[in-house]
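Minutes, project check-in
Item: structure for the 98-residue chain
Input as provided by the requester:
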Amino acid sequence: MIVLATLIEAFATILHTLINIYIWVVIIAALITFVRPDPYNPIVQILFRLTNPVYAFIRKLVPTLIGGIDLAPLIVILALQFIDLFAVKLLFALANVL
C-alpha cells in the first residue's frame, strides 16, 4: 500500500510540474505575439507548435476572439489551473487515504 501511495504522489507531483511548465509556455507564447516575432526563429516555432494545437481545439469549442483580443491563452490557463487544483489535489488525497 505504501508503494502505491508513493507512486500516486510522485505522479501527482510530476503532473503538477508539467502543468506549471505548460502554463509558462502559454504565457510566453502569448506575450511574444505582442512584439511580432521572427517566424523563422526556432524558439518561436517551438512555442507556437506547443500552443497552437491547444488553441485550435479551444477555438473549435468556444469563440475566443472578443473585441479583437484572442482569449484562447486565458481559457487554456484557466483550464490548466482547474486541472491542477482538482486532479492533482485529488491524487494527493487518494495517496493519503492509502
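Outcome recorded: The longest strand covers residues 65-66.
No further action items on this chain.
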